Amino acid sequence: MGDKVKKLKVDETIQEIRTNLSLELEMAKDEGRKVVGSMCSYFPKEIVWAAGAIPVGLCGTTEEPIAAAEEVLPADLCPMVKATYGRAVSNTCPIFPLTDCIVGETTCDGRKKMYELLSWEKPMHIMELPQMPDEKEALVHWIAEVKKLKIFIEEQLGVKITEEKLKQSIKDVNEERRLLVEIHKCRKEHPVPVMGVDLVGLTTKFAYSVDRKPYKEKLGNLLEGLKYRIQNREPACSPDRPRILWTGLGNSLGCDKVLKLVEECGGVVVCQEGCGGITRIEDMVDEKKDPIEAIAERYLRVTCSCMTPNTTRFKDIDRLITEYNIQGVIDLTWQFCHTFNIESYRVKELVKGKHGLPFLHIVTDFSQSDIGQLRVRIEGFLEQISLRN
User: Does the reported pTM lie above 0.90?
Assistant: First the structure.
């Protein structure tokens, strides 16, 4: 167990991890397997696994590809949108050339217009996401979109996705989600058994996986290691670090500069809501219902700020503040992401108004140019928390 505990950290860069994955994908394709690129939390990966193919995330998380993207796309556009397009067209992404097709969703105007250009590079299917999930027509529409995706995958990959394979895929992915939920719940302990930076690195690395069995084994080992640390009182940090809830746009290896700053300055992120966080994994697909309808129901419940009204997100934040004994909240928005930027006002009202906690809204991009300014703001935010305790 000692070795597993020591390995609760990632030393590779995101570029190295992607390169390693591309080598595995090449070997898988030599064996006849297909690869489907994905873009968002609304992507129902169960359908791809049921087709015997491999889903891989293609979103950009570093600033290097942005220069190439800005030769076509406007500069005043979300950095993630630009980085994603730049990776695809600049030959800097080792994974993109290996995809047989790509699936995107209409989560924002920047993405859906970028997808039009991206479709020149690869066969692409766009799922039209309903924006008002509480309306009864929304589910009807989304079920139809999931059915269209199934047909697209079958046609592109030359396979037949049976109901039996879908049900097994749903069961497998639910098992992975349950492991991830238990991993995240370990951070309710005080002090936490793992730093936020390390958990993001580990889950990012593990997600770049070709086969499901090794992925689940890695998650199981991580959970075992965290429980060992808790049981043996081997925390990842001192108990005086402020416990931070991260909301808004997520962290992954490569675009985690703000997360690193928070923990370098003396805080610890013990929970993440939103993209990459626990609220994207704790919701299971109902294994007793018709698989297509169950998949549609589950993915329509994702609480991206593109939805209106997005009431479930605020219920989640309210609940997580209590469950994880939160002392301060940081809300991240990428530049030019108008929906998350506007929603940040309601997050602040909830955090400061109902819970009386310090709140910090950060708007940034993937560059390192604002590191100094961000450090000063984060240090001031953490000082607010220290003065309260």
Answer: yes
Beta bridge partners of 72: none
pLDDT, residue 226, reads 97
**For residue 42, what pLDDT is reported?**
96
Span 329-373, pLDDT tens digits = 999 999 999 999 999 999 999 999 999 999 999 999 999 999 999
The pLDDT, as a whole number, for residue 1 is 47
138 domain residue, yes or no:
yes
Domain that holds residue 126: 9-161
Residue 310 domain-assigned? no
State how many domains the chain has. 1
Secondary structure of the chain as H, E, C letters: CHHHHHCCCCCCCHHHHHHHHHHHHHHHHHCCCCEEEECCCCCCHHHHHHCCCEEEECCCCCCCCHHHHCCCCCCCCCHHHHHHHHHHHCCCCCCHHHCCEEEEECCCHHHHHHHHHHCCCCCEEEECCCCCCCCHHHHHHHHHHHHHHHHHHHHHHCCCCCHHHHHHHHHHHHHHHHHHHHHHHHHHCCCCCCCHHHHHHHHHHHHCCCCHHHHHHHHHHHHHHHHHHHHCCCCCCCCCCCEEEEEECCCCCCCCHHHHHHHHCCCEEEEECCCCCHHHCCCCCCCCCCHHHHHHHHHHCCCCCCCCCCHHHHHHHHHHHHHCCCCEEEEEEECCCHHHHHHHHHHHHHHHHHCCCCEEEEEECCCCCCHHHHHHHHHHHHHHHHHHC
Report whether pLDDT(6) > 90.
no
268-272 sheet: strands from edge to edge: 268-272, 243-248, 328-334, 359-364
pLDDT band at 24 (very low <50, low <70, confident <90, very high): very high
Residue at 339 is within a domain = no
**CATH code assigned at 64:** 3.40.50.11890
